[in-house]
Design brief:
Blueprint (H helix, E strand, L loop, with lengths): L38 H9 L2 H29 L8 H26 L4 H24 L5 H24 L9 H30 L3 H22 L11 H6 L4 H20 L2 H31 L6 H29 L5 H19 L5 H29 L2 H27 L9 H23 L6
Amino acid sequence: MPAGGKPPAGAAATTPGTQRSRSVGQPPAGPTPDRRSSFIGDLRVVWAEHDFRRLFSTRLVSQSGDGLFTAGLGGYVFFNNTNFVNPAAGAAAFAVLYLPYSLIGPFAGVFIDRWSRRQILVWSALIRSVFVALTAGLVASGRLGVPLYVGVLLVLGVNRFFLSSLSAALPHVVAEDKLVMANSVSPTAGGIMASVAGLAGLGVHVVLHGGQGEYAVTLLVAGCCYIAAGLVSATMPRGLLGPSQEARQRHAVGIGRDLAAVAVGLTAGARYIFSRRGPASALAATGGNRIFYGILFLMSLLLWRNYFYAGESANKALTHYAVLTLIVAVGYGAAAFVTPIVTRWLTKRAWIASLLIASAVTFGALGPPFTQPTFLVLGFVLGLAGQGIAICTTTILQEEVGDDYRGRAFSFYDMFFNALFVGGAGVSAAFMPVSGKSVGLILAIAVGYALTAGGYLAFSRQRPVGS
C-alpha cells in the first residue's frame, strides 16, 4: 500500500536532545498521544519565535518538494506507459527509496556536529536541486535502471543530511521550555505538506493524462522547492543554528573514531531494547507489521498496474491508485485521532494486540476476493493499524528506555523500521506473481498478523528478570 516506509511516528517527537527527523513522503504522524490534541495551540506558541518561523518555513518548503519528488518518481517507475513493473523491479525501487534513511541517518550527526548547520541547509538544498535536475533528465529520456537509481540515491542521501540538520538546529531557535512543542509541531506539519504536495502532484498527472515528460516536470518543480528552501535558510545568520565554535573545535579531529562510536551505539541501543520485554515485544510487533506492510505495498502497486488495469492506460491506473493513497492517509489520520482516546480505556499493549487481530481478521476475510472496493477497505485498516501500533510502540520506548540510551534506541528503531519494510517487499518478490494477485500470499499475511498478535501477547506478558 502507499507510503509507509519512513521512520516511526513519534520518533520526531522525542524528549529534548533526542530529536529525530522525518522522511520523504511520510503521512502525517503527529506528536506523542498525550500532546496530540494541542497541536494548534503548540503551533501558535512556537510560531511567535522569529527564528523558529524561518527554520519552520525552510522545512515546509523543502518537504513540499519531497512530496512532489516522490509523486513524480513513483509515478514514473510504477505507472509508466512504456513498461509494466515486475516484483523484482518494485522491490529494488523500494530499497533505493527507503534504505538511505536507515543507513545514512545515524551517521549524519557526526558531520552535522562539525559543520555549520545553516550552511548544510543552504548547500544541501542547492546540491539536491542539481541532482534532481539530473534525475529529471533521465526520466524525460525514458531511462529506467541503474543511472536513475544512482540519481535518486544522491537526492535522498543529501536530503537525509538536510532533515537531520533541521532537527539538530531546532534547540537554537526556540526556548528550552518550548522544545517539546516544537518537536511535535515541526515534523507533523512537514509530513502534512509532503502528503498534500504528493497528492497534488498525482492529481496534476491525472488531469493532464501525463507521461514521462510530465513526470520530469514534476521533479523539476520539486527541485525549485529545494532551491527556495535553501534561499529561506540563507536568511538566517550563519552561526545561528550551531554548532558552537567550541563544539566544532572539540570535534575537529577523530571523525573515524566518532563514526565507529555511532556503530557501537546502534549495537548498544539494540542490546538495551532487546533486554527489556516491554520495548522488545513492542518493537517485534512493529517489525511484524512493517514486513506485512512492505509485502502489501508491493502487491498493491502490481495489482493496480498489472491486474485491475492491465489492458488500460497507466494514467487510469494511477488515477485509481491515488484514491488508495488517500484512503491509507485517512487511516493514518484516524489512528492519530483514535489512539489517544482508546488508550485512556485500554492499555497500549491491549491496543497493539487489538490492531493486529483486527488486521488478521480483515485481511483474511476481504483479501482473497481481490476486488478494488475490498482493497480500499484494507488500505484504511492498514493505515490505521500501522500508525496506531507505531504510536504505541514509540510511547513505550519513550517511557521504558532510560534517557541515557534513548537516542541510540531510536536510531536503531529507525533502521529497524525501514529495513523490515524493504525486507518484506524483497522476500515476497520471489513468490509474488507479476499481476500481484496471490490468494496464498494474502492468507499468509492474515495468518502472520494473527501469529504476531499471539506472540506479542505471550511475550509482553512476562516481565524481565529482576524488574
